[in-house]
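Q: Hi! First time asking for a complex rather than a single chain. Here are the components, and I think there are two in total. Is that enough to go on?
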Amino acid sequence: MTDVEIEYCVPCGFLGRAEEIQHHLLQQFGQRLDRVALVTGDHGVLTVSVDGERIWDKSEDEYDPDLILRRVRPHVGT
Amino acid sequence: MTDVEIEYCVPCGFLGRAEEIQHHLLQQFGQRLDRVALVTGDHGVLTVSVDGERIWDKSEDEYDPDLILRRVRPHVGT
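A: Yes, that's all I need. Here is the structure of the assembled complex.
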């Protein structure tokens, strides 16, 4: 059971970036993930959490979908 | 609090359709939705549920993102 949440700032127009991250993860891992949720937020947020653990944050980390993928991988079943 | 789940069949290649439905809903309702999750499934599933209630099912309903939007609307806060 692997549950990913991508919280994104709606007024900032981060929907496209959140969708891009989600697409990368679902393309790569498919049914090895149970779900990927886009969670609406504001105040500039763009974060990725796996099973409740934050693994990427726009305010601290480079925007690189492959980096995010590498950080999700250890949480994913085989 | 409005929580949408789109379950889609991964081996059928329904990711694109699930993403399209999700995009329509988030473009339309933004922060009036709390989250829209893509849930991985198989056996041909493509369904939309709002707060646990199934409001659209590919096996019964026409594929029309606007129809889905109209069925979600009554569940969405103002």
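A: The mean pLDDT of chain B is 96. Let me know if you'd like any chain examined more closely.
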